[in-house]
Design a protein that fits this description.
Number of helices: 13
Distance between the termini: 11 Å
Shape: elongated
Strand content: under 5%
Helix content: over 70%
Order of helices and strands: HHHHHHHHHHHHH
Number of strands: 0
Radius of gyration: 27 Å
Largest sheet: none
Oligomer: single chain
Length: 333
């Protein structure tokens, strides 16, 4: 095969890889995209190897060497660190990932809410049943004296924050048990809240109780739902890795799950701050309920809409791209 035949046979692949390298940054939204890019990169790399062997001094070889070099950097080189990378993750990558994992997160939320409803109905019908569903210190809490005055700010806030961190972590790590432990944690956490709500209702403290739960609870529960969704997504990859092989599928699923957990960590920090300062305060109930509504709207807008707009191409590789576009012409020989 001479250079002309070689070029005619493979040039479409080269141009396809060249177009892929002109994007802002190499970002793979699915295992399919990652696999397609890797396959194309390996294919063009083999073409470069052939060219170096059969016509090492030809300009085609020089072109392929430049193309493969750029593709290699895009494939393996990490994005620049710093504020811009953090901002992109927060503003674009995290909410986009949330939307892609929405089905798993919805299942996670459904299990927790179902447990909450079950605990509420059963306890409302038979208060003594609470002792069979939750620990005795929860079932035997004195709901008649519930209120902001019962809270020791730093102690209570820190204890509950640690508990929520553990619940989120267990829900995520539970994915390695094929999701069974994840489902158990989600059910247990939802059950506890439902039982408490029913016990408080019998003491006619419902409005006060929810004013102590919802301001931070909207953020906190959303974080737990996301953690459960990450665990369930990982469990799904264990059970059904798809056509790309279990090891590759698990690595990709783990990368996405860990990214979600970074977002969860930030949410728990926000929830803990609200819990430490607003929840135990003597501010009017409308302020606390207003905070709950505001946070719900903000999270809905953030996870539902942030990052949807396409960003302009990045000029970070402009010199390499210009060199590729204006490189030596591939003359037939």
């Amino acid at each position: 095969m001479n250079v002309k035949q070689f070029r005619q046979a493979h040039e479409n692949s080269w141009r396809e890889l060249e177009r892929a390298c002109r994007t802002r940054r190499q970002s793979f939204k699915s295992a399919e995209q990652l696999d397609a890019y890797a396959r194309l990169y390996r294919q063009v790399s083999s073409h470069l190897s052939y060219a170096k062997t059969h016509f090492p001094t030809n300009e085609v070889t020089e072109y392929l060497n430049s193309l493969v070099g750029i593709a290699h950097n895009r494939f393996y080189q990490a994005d620049k660190t710093g504020f811009s990378a953090v901002w992109r993750f927060v503003a674009t990558d995290l909410p986009a990932l949330f939307r892609r994992m929405g089905g798993y997160i919805a299942v996670s939320a459904g299990v927790s809410l179902a447990a909450m409803l079950y605990g509420y109905i059963v306890t409302l019908h038979s208060p003594l049943a609470a002792y069979q569903m939750v620990p005795a210190q929860i079932a035997g809490v004195n709901t008649a004296h519930i209120g902001p005055h019962t809270w020791d700010d730093p102690v209570i806030a820190s204890e509950i924050m640690v508990n929520n961190i553990l619940v989120s972590l267990y829900a995520f790590v539970g994915g390695v048990t094929l999701g069974l432990f994840t489902l158990y944690i989600l059910w247990k956490n939802g059950l506890m809240l439902g039982v408490l709500a029913a016990l408080v209702q019998s003491s006619h403290k419902t409005a006060v109780f929810w004013s102590l739960i919802l301001p931070h609870g909207v953020t906190e529960l959303t974080a737990i739902f996301i953690s459960g969704g990450a665990g369930l997504a990982f469990a799904h990859r264990i059970i059904s890795p798809g056509q790309y092989g279990r090891s590759r599928s698990l690595v990709h699923a783990l990368r996405e799950a860990v990214s979600l957990m970074f977002g969860v960590a930030g949410m728990l920090l926000i929830a803990g701050t609200i819990e430490g300062f607003l929840t135990p305060s003597f501010l009017p109930l409308w302020v606390k309920y207003g905070t709950a509504i505001l946070t719900a709207v903000l999270w809905f807008l953030y996870y539902g809409w942030a990052g949807r707009k396409n960003h302009r191409p990045d000029s970070g590789d402009s010199r390499n791209q210009e060199g590729l576009r204006n490189g030596p012409a591939m003359r037939d020989s």
